[in-house]
């Protein structure tokens, strides 16, 4: 034992020689401080029990962060008397340390990051000191007991904010060249005295076509002073952006991103058909080429052949292309006053071909299957059959100024018996113009010049051709100043595609119209949403399509060039489904099984129809989404029942069906027709016909009056529209010559064969099977006897 104590004594002396201060072991981590002279000058305390009990973890530049350190012995008791010694370390060399209520001599700075603290008197076991910094960012304060970075007591982190104000915001755009629809990032950096500012709200703005800066979004800066806004643009061209602090209008920089065309998506002919007077030397047709976002493709004339190729087929079958430059001329229409602005213009010199008839002009995107065509009929203008009136603008602002904005006219086109149109010359003075409401607008009776009166509302502008009595009219809407945007979102439940329609309205909620130079608008869309087919404002309305990456609710924002803005939500989630129970019974309260329930959505756009039949308990269950529906209940020998319902929760519909009255026995009519014979047999009695049934392409035909009157129908022919109308009981059927569309009691039906005029027999022939079945007759064909048998 004596040898062990002697060894400990020697070891203690060795440690004192190397460190200058020795510590006598007292417990696991509690030691007695001994100075260089070997005296027990400082109080012993426990590293584990002592700690930083409070500090300011977030301060501004040059603001004090006050620390309170509590010293305890290994028993947990506070150290009540001094002196105490410990060491302070900062994780960087930018801080200043001062004691609170201490003496200057008590704090000794060892180097740029370390301080030694020797305090003679300690109160309530606590020592307080402050740390200040002129450098923003984070630093750690660590306390040690045994020496510089030796014997750790505790540590704490402090965040130094650069400033609560911003004196500079710089903007960077990455990448600065994108294709339409591609996302890019607006990166703003906020600083004060060259230090980054955290937590500042940065406003991002875009310059619209009118030169105004329009807010498109905000973001808050991070610890590096950076705020980012990620967006996409679908409209091609240069887009200019700027960023500023939300509490200051001052802007330090702005940047531009170039948006290039997306992939070419379609080519569209401006006119499907048109006419050209044979007296003219040439005719023009136009084609618009679009990318996937609805941007028109525009190229220099020298590059035009690399985009589209043109093929013109003349009436005689000869083909000309844009390489036949003396016949076909291909250019870009760059006159912004034309509605064909930024379209590919094809001029065909018909006088050099010298053929009247139909010309087919086809344009194709090079290297693709994308194409479209226009058919041009070259002929003399025929007999006038109608007139058409058109307005330069159908919706106009009440403050329209003809002196500044140009005259507004109603224009008339003369239409001949073949549909050929030509402009009416007001010098002929054959047409008289009128307005139904002169308070809204007046119109020159011979010139068609329109005078807007400065009031909002609607008026009908009419044109009357005095020599023939032909007339036509069109509505003119006069609107106020746009004050708001109405948004209509059309997304079918469960679908990831939708359409958005924007409508400008005035202060009274009436439709308004944009300024002439404010047709465009911006869309701020989030991640997961793609915008396409963007259409500018025209007559106060605009639209675009959206597609979502996944089912969710997305928030979009629209900003018009006129400064109108609207934030709205698009819901691509699957709609909640509710259970609708139909309980069907008879008048005695007995449940009716096998009754059919058909439910249709009231909104036409929804196209939702669901069917179910009742079980033995008279119940039919149908799941429906929220909305309004119409339904029909039918059952054999019972009266039909029609009703409507509103679904916003699980509901039960109780329905009572009345009993159908027994009808008297109906006599049947049997009609027989034989191939190659002009005889028609009705209930066994034979009658002669003008012609036998005609068979063509596997179908049988008869003159319309023969088949109709054989069934007991009255049949009428209207030569003006070339239609046949047959009526029997409460059924009316209307056919049109050479058209496969027929109408049964006003419902549109498509036939597989069209009525036609047979020149040989001089009769209008109708398909036998279709007209018979239209009047609920049964048609059969006997291959053995070669007979058509109709039973009604």
UniProtKB/TrEMBL annotation:
Keywords, A to Z, come to:
Signal
- List each coiled-coil range: none
Q: Say yes or no: keyword Signal present.
A: yes
Q: Which residues form the signal peptide?
A: 1-24
Question: Copper amine oxidase-like N-terminal domain: which residues?
Answer: 682-790
Gene3D superfamilies, sorted: Carboxypeptidase-like, regulatory domain (2.60.40.1120), Copper amine oxidase-like, N-terminal domain (3.30.457.10), Immunoglobulins (2.60.40.10)
Q: Which domain of life is it from?
A: Bacteria
**One Pfam family in the UniProt entry:** Cu_amine_oxidN1
Database matches in InterPro entries: Cu_amine_oxidase-like_N, Ig-like_fold, Mao_N_sf
Q: What is this protein called?
A: Copper amine oxidase domain protein
Which organism is this entry from? Answer: Natranaerobius thermophilus (strain ATCC BAA-1301 / DSM 18059 / JW/NM-WN-LF)
